[in-house]
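Homework help thread (please don't just give me the answer)

Our assignment gives two proteins as sequence + structure token strings and asks us to describe the second one. The first is just a warm-up. Here they are:
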Amino acid sequence: MKKQLLLGIFVAQLLGTLAWAQKSANPPAEGFKAEASEPRAIILADEVMEAMGGRKNWDKTRYITWNFFGNRRLVWDKWQGDVRVDYLKTDQTVLLNLNTGKGRVMKDGQELTHADSIAKYVEQGKSAWINDAYWLVMPYKLKDSGVTLRYLGHEPTEDGAKAEKIQLTFEKVGNTPQNKYYVWVSPETHLVTQWAYFSEAGNEKPNFIMPWKSYKKYGKILLSGDRGQRQLTEIQVFDKLPTQVFNSFEKPVL
């Protein structure tokens, strides 16, 4: 009888939490695995969003640009899905739209004209954006389509800071749905302070563990480019940018 009562209370709390999450100021993306996710993990995801500036300010943020470890410089129009990828170690630029999958490619000083080649490099550009953007804006994507969140309890980060830990797994989304992440959240700031990446969800040991440090305000949101020994640089947020950024191969000065 006691077990049934406790189970009933747990189910009621779970349903209440899921209902609250659906109606909260941070509604999940369509396809987020709310029913499979754990209530405490969902609450932490919402607290992270609020600490980063809030869902409203995230949605209002339009243009973001950053340098991905000296390999690529990206400009992203969140509203329209336009992306510019300048490869910094080769003479290559990809202009694409995430919604249509179409784009243009400049390589070795020449714009490509063959459809197969264009499609190949546009897909590479999209894959680069998927990867590079996640390194920068992952805390805003904890309730993305296909994500399941698990709560893993209290565990300090590698530098000894207190944190609560959640797990992200993915279903049929992105380029690598077999990945898994652990994310540590500070109980004081409610910011992500560390993550661990697993190339396969079944792996016991991560491919890497890195900090998320040195948050700064850009526009009305917080972003972190400090991953310990690796740095995302030239981070900027804009309300307006000229259309040439996304339709001209001439490198913009931002």
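The one we have to describe:
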Amino acid sequence: MAVHRPTIEMLRQWVELACHAPSVHNSQPWRWVFSGGDLHLELDTDRLVATDPSRRQALISCGAVLDHLGVAAAATGWRILVDYLPNPNDPLFVASVGFTPMTYVTVAHRRRAAAILTRRSDRLPFRAPQNWPAAQLLLSRAAEGRPDEDSAAIFDVLSHDDRTTLAEASRLSEALRQYDSDYHAELDWWTGPFGDSDGIPHGSLVSAAEGQRVDVGRSFPVTHHRRDRRTEIAQDRSEIVVLSTYSNTRQDVVCCGQALSRVLLEAEMSQLSTCPLTHVLEVDVSRDMVRSLVHRDHPQVLVRVGQRTADDDQPAPTPPPAHRRCIHSACVVIAGNRVEDLCLYGSDLRHP
């Protein structure tokens, strides 16, 4: 009987595309290891942020890259089979991924994979999303996932009446950390101008005037642009989605990251802009405020969702793509005693 397995070249392409997944501060805290026919996803300890001591945000990031891998594989006719946290003695081992052929690849599979490369975290103000009831239904179903998947998340949309309370929670989370040197040093590190493979690019940050028009957002170091962008939008009119889990195990958090990926890609396919938010959940007081708004015990991540700007005369209306690590630093092949880069560009990349 023939054994159907993806080729190394397929794995290289899937991993490279998957690594465009969103992550906290674009830290990309994951590492892929190919061994014994399976692909292992691990936390990369060199890329964990100090202000995430529980590793919750890192696990959400790993869940997002795991779903992106599944999207990349599905576009070429393969389905991933995920074994979550397979070694309880190894907290860095997030998932083992196997593969099985699909019977048919739809146009939607390919469109979703293409959306990986066009999705951005957009911190600028949004217009209200058009036809929101229909979009909300699509995003809610994306969060739920397929019936045969274990990665569902609870999907809630905050009412406009709750927006004032959420904005207060956002300001409170920032105020409580205004003297936290470690927190601000880390933000400076991940937004520094020297990063060419990780961190948040300068063009994705907002100026002081732009930030004042977004009532719910993390306060990054202020940048200066030649002209403020989207000045035609006086105030952010986004809808805010909250993804929660029924319990708070490590697997729940990883699965929420997968749901986040599905929601972001579905929004991108619907030509909606998005921006994931976690700062209001990093401080107990503001996290409790979010809990009270959605009546859920375990909110994990928020997402601003809005309409793209349609004004072509505005400078840089869409944020630039975030930097990504070369694939050699995110993935290795283990074959016997040999360790090789799972890289796409051969001699262009150094070997470990």
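TA reply:
I won't write it for you, but here's a hint about the kind of observation we're looking for: Residues 312-316, 334-339, 343-352 have pLDDT under 50 and may be disordered.
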